[in-house]
Write a structure and sequence with these properties.
271 residues, alpha+beta, 4-stranded antiparallel sheet, 10 helices
Length: 271
């Protein structure tokens, strides 16, 4: 099979009678006899080509000095893949069927990709390039849409990054909610307590920053002196989120899941 010289007719790979006989392990006379006995089953142009006259002369010139074609023959039969199948059926031997399967895999099928003309190959390449370009355009559109969706968050994060003034936790909750974080003052206080940023133990330090949060620079405590009628003065302590704390909580909470289940018409409480 490795020595089988490929030949083509009308851009289709074909075999001569001698080649068929050699591959199927029989004689050319046997191939000719089977064809004569079953000629009604064969269709010219589908199962075979019969070359004579100028057509045969032109084909001989195409194959050149090859010994595939006898230069003296006045008529030449060329068998297509379907013609080769009918010959395998007529012989019905293991050798013929095995050879036919090999021919399909290594001789006829290989030609399928070679039948494309130059313009067809260019058209296929253009279609593939168009598909790749379309995928890239879709990817760019998706990225642009995502960037547009993220723009408010990016702008907010950038603005917080330059913030120098401390704000109340309730103010931070409002800003977060305006930028897509489903929270409120009460929920933000509770989240901070549950996550170790505020003291949750009931007492005078309730809702004050934990030592860890203070060490991280996330809060500062504003102390206000309140004079009373009896003359004594009490100190009111209010936790405020520093600029560093705002950056920290924005990065932690922007785009996160709701801190607590949504509460409709939640009333903001005053610390």
């Amino acid at each position: 099979m490795n020595n089988l010289q490929p030949i083509e007719n009308n851009n289709q790979r074909v075999l001569t009678t001698a080649q068929i006989a050699e591959q199927y392990g029989t004689t050319t006379d046997r191939i000719k006899d089977n064809f004569s006995a079953n000629k009604a089953r064969y269709t010219e142009g589908k199962h075979y080509y019969c070359l004579t006259g100028e057509e045969l002369k032109e084909f001989k010139n195409l194959v050149g000095n090859s010994d595939v074609v006898d230069k003296r023959t006045p008529k030449l039969y060329l068998w297509t893949e379907k013609g080769a199948l009918l010959h395998a059926k007529s012989l019905n031997t293991d050798k013929a069927w095995q050879a036919y399967e090999v021919l399909v895999d290594t001789y006829f099928e290989v030609q399928e990709t070679k039948r494309l003309t130059g313009s067809e190959l260019m058209a296929a390449a253009l279609l593939e390039a168009h598909a790749v370009l379309e995928q890239k355009e879709k990817r760019i559109t998706t990225l642009e849409q995502q960037a547009e969706q993220d723009k408010p968050k990016v702008l907010f994060a950038d603005s917080v990054a330059t913030a120098k003034n401390s704000i109340l936790i309730g103010e931070l909750a409002k800003i977060l909610r305006q930028n897509g974080v489903e929270t409120g003052q009460q929920r933000l206080f509770e989240w901070m307590r549950e996550n170790g940023f505020l003291i949750k133990r009931k007492g005078s330090d309730y809702n004050m920053p934990t030592q860890r949060a203070m060490n991280m620079g996330l809060f500062e405590v504003k102390e206000t002196a309140i004079p009373h009628a009896d003359g004594h003065v009490s100190i009111s302590k209010t936790p405020k989120v520093t600029g560093k704390g705002q950056i920290y909580f924005v990065h932690k909470l922007m785009g996160a899941e709701p801190l607590l289940p949504s509460l409709e018409n939640e009333k903001e409480c005053h610390q």
